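Moderator note: this is an archived Q&A kept for reference. The question asked for a predicted structure of one protein chain; the sequence and the answer are reproduced below.
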Amino acid sequence: MGINLLEQLKAVTVVVADTGDIQAIETFKPRDATTNPSLITAAAQMPQYQGIVDDTLKAARISLGQAATAAEVVSLAFDRLAVSFGLKILEIIPGRVSTEVDARLSFDTEATVAKGRELIAQYEAHNVGRDRVLIKIAATWEGIQAAAVLEKEGIHCNLTLLFGLHQAIACAENGITLISPFVGRILDWYKKDSGRDSYEPAEDPGVVSVTEIYNYYKKFGYKTEVMGASFRNVGEITELAGSDLLTIAPSLLAELQATEGELPRKLDPINAANLSIEKISIDKATFEAMHAENRMATDKLAEGISGFAAALESLEQLLADRLASLEG
């Protein structure tokens, strides 16, 4: 019996579980795990995690006292819930968990810095070191500047909703620990824009984008890690074998685990070092100009922030309804 694709992938790439589903993390045993507002909202609605939600609400009520309004309790519980899931996940995995800053703060540097510090303080209050947490921030110019401040304080960051080389270079130049370029969402945009139904894996625009970023980083010796994210199919994943990390949904992890065959390494730092690539220096004006010229990145960043904000609003309503039920 041959070695399945998942085991072969783990030999050349750190595999990360892209889920808030703790049972899925136990099944696939990734090194790291990453969550986002949509995943936390989905997990919070699963019956098996009702206890985490209820415990977070009860703890918020105790912290604030009986005089606090329901809205105040929900607000505190909302701030703590992602960390509550993160703490459960860290009991299972040996590596790091990514916990996201409120997407509605994506264009506010100071508020993002404050929220990043607050999230880390919550983890540290449970004796979790900074080496086991990545603060996840949208890769706006303001978000990247906030992450640069946090990195200088020893708070490691994961810059998400990343769709273009300009975002990636700005992150690397600011010493960010890790970036999450969104492969599948790039593919979605190009399929809609071009009217094409599909792309071959090697021609997939999301794969091409992450390959370009990976090669750029390795060519110029940047330490920032590349973690491809948001996959639509196994072909995208196998084309990026060799990336520093890949964060993969449970359904695709299962497909990789069930599939045998050869998995050649596609991304390699030695090969990247020999490529002819022009170095680009990114300041705010250059960043904004490159972003404006990239219709896909402009559309998908705005859409991603809006989508995560909507998921957070749904989560707030879910918590309000659950608190009313608990205290009914």
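Archived answer notes: The mean pLDDT is 96.
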